[in-house]
Amino acid sequence: MKSIRMIGAALVGFGLVAGVNAQGKDPISDTAAVYATYQSDVTDVKDKPLSSAGDIDDALNSLGGHNPDQLSKGWIAYSALIASQNPEYRAAVRDIESFYGREALETGMRNDVRYARTLHGGDIAVSSALSATEADSRRLSTTAAYVKEQAYSLQASGWAKAKIGNSGSKARKLDSIQATGIPAKLGLLTAMNAPDFDAVLVQAGNTGAPSLWDNVSGAAGAIKIPAAVTSGLTGNRKRVKFGKEPVADQIATLAAYRVLGASTEKNASQINSAMAERETKGCLNMANLNLQQCVAAANQQYEVPFCIGEHALSDVGKCIGGVYQ
After folding, report:
1. Residues with Cβ < 8 Å from 9, sequence gap 6 or more?
2. Eight-state DSSP code of residue 309
3. Cα→Cα distances 212→134, 280, 284, Å
4. Which of 2, 19, 81, 130 is the least buried, fewest Cβ under 10 Å from its Cβ?
5. pLDDT tens, 222-243?
6. Weakest-pLDDT range from 86-95, 229-238, 295-304
7. How does pLDDT run across 105-156, given as a tens digit for each residue?
8. Residue 263: its pLDDT value, please?
9. Residue 117's closest CA among 242, 306, 260, 247?
């Protein structure tokens, strides 16, 4: 909860929360808040060493309890929010809407999922989203290494060497949590529906920028983003990996709907379809299954952090990181 308060305070200081309803304004932002919730849980584990069996259980259930379909959709929705900030792409979407009409543009996107990415700036917009994904994937890898290291260091603690009473029961509980999923936290739903949140998203999509979730923090009631986010950035523009073009097309389509402000019931089916991506969902589902098996095989408390680091963090980073090159 500490990280949520910090982000919430920062966004309030930036004018991002006041007067905004938590849900119903933009289903793309609402869905992206599920991914943001996972990342906020990563921050909690990253910032606080595991010091009890309760801490391990909390980390296991929060990081490993996400539903693969919901988390996959949340990541694609967040990627679309980043892509929708590209000025060239925004202008192209608006120009097509102005010249041919919104209905013609939406019909084009309904008939061909590849259409939106062919618009001017489409590839660059998606590249921005992939840059943000690279930063997030790297953050997950780093956090995974930190958590797995605790699996070794905790062997010196008496409580961590205690036997797990029923590891099979622990794994079954995790399976039950995963089936339902973890809902987006209210503070993040509110913040990500705020119009001024776009100013934060622009920074997150810069090539070479750190992960948004590492660099938004509260300081004196105002947002504080290190200078590295806005200047001195290096890195190559991310390209879509061969065979992953459908994911890029879906991100561009969602981004176009976001630019149009067309997230209404009329477009609900198309938006939900663009969020659904089989390969990433399947990869996250396999990570969940491997996590359950790892937990079920654990005999002592200190073994569980290895499972968390390997399958609830590292594997997730690989799943979302498999789209770019």
Report:
1. 218, 221
2. I
3. 11, 21, 21
4. 19
5. 333 344 344 445 556 778 888 8
6. 229-238
7. 999 999 998 999 999 999 999 999 999 999 999 999 999 999 999 999 998 8
8. 59
9. 247
Averaged pLDDT for residues 18-27: 52
For the chain, the straight-line distance linking the first and the last C-alpha, in angstroms and rounded, comes to 34
Q: Which residues pair with 222 in a beta bridge?
A: 219
Q: How many residues does the chain have?
A: 325
Question: Half-sphere exposure of 267 toward its Cβ, with a 13 Å CA cutoff?
Answer: 24
Phi then psi for residue 163, to 5 deg, are: -70, 145
- Tell me the one-letter amino acid at 266: K
Domain boundaries, the chain: 2-321
User: In 3D, which of 220, 223, 240 has the Cα closest to residue 124?
Assistant: 240
What six digits make up the tokens of 264? 């209404």
CB atoms within 10 A of CB 291: 27
How far apart, in whole angstroms, are the C-alpha atoms of residue 175 and residue 107?
A: 40
Separation of CA 38 from chain center: 7
